[in-house]
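Here is one such protein, fold included:

. . .
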Amino acid sequence: MPRDHLVRGIFPEAGLRAMFVRVGDTARMARMLHGLAPTAAHLFAEGLCGGLLVAALQKDRARINLQLECDGPLRGLFVDAAPAGQVRGYVRAPAIHFPGDPVQGARAALGGSGYLSVIRDQGQGNFYRGSVQLQALSLAGDLRRYFAESEQVDTALDLQVLPRGDEPLGDVAGLLLQRLPGGDAEAVAAVRARVEEGAFARALAGSGSAQEALRLVVGEGFEVLADTEVAYVCGCSQERARAAITVLGRDGVSELLADERKAVVACEFCRAQYLVEEAELRQILSRLSEAGE
């Protein structure tokens, strides 16, 4: 199967920038890591794609968070992605599955309302958050609305999860196209129309390469600027586990010492578990007491 990667480039004659991402291996690994049922795995695969596409638009190395909250049984998902291709995340209700058509199952899992947010780290503790209400009740559809309403950028976007034989996450890929200043607005509109007609899914069913998919959906003239490997990477550590316990404050740490005499911190992103022994808890409590926290 084609490798997981993130491709950035431009169509210079039309004044467009384009992103292509493939996350099939990553999505299948995440399904096993989080124990995801088929519908939850389908939506999380789309989320990994969407998060990486948005992260690829960043001019610096700042990470982005893609957060979906809904009133359906899935409840929501969270994706943390970096422009260099690192991604991680979790689903709030991993056991959700609706048999039958995966797209209809995904809609049922989302319910009837909610919101989609993009959170950008702007440095120095400053964050930008843009949100839209869920209306399309599909991650691709509501991401398109996000760019139209919150960013006000002319955008064509599609996310596809395609089966290969008995594997429902056979190919997972996303496409994003935006008009640069002075670019061809009609070209973006034409790509949006082709995407709605299923052109991206058909392109993936063919050769499946990034360049070939972009040629079939957008046209000739794509120039690659960067081709980056995608990987599921988590930055959790023993130090961060101790920091999480510190957030409990003196009362919370005192309760842990009285009741358990240890703490086990589980990472939501990678399921790793960190044991904080009694001696470390007492050190944390001592520092909190000295700081008056």
Observations:
- The chain has a mean pLDDT of 92.
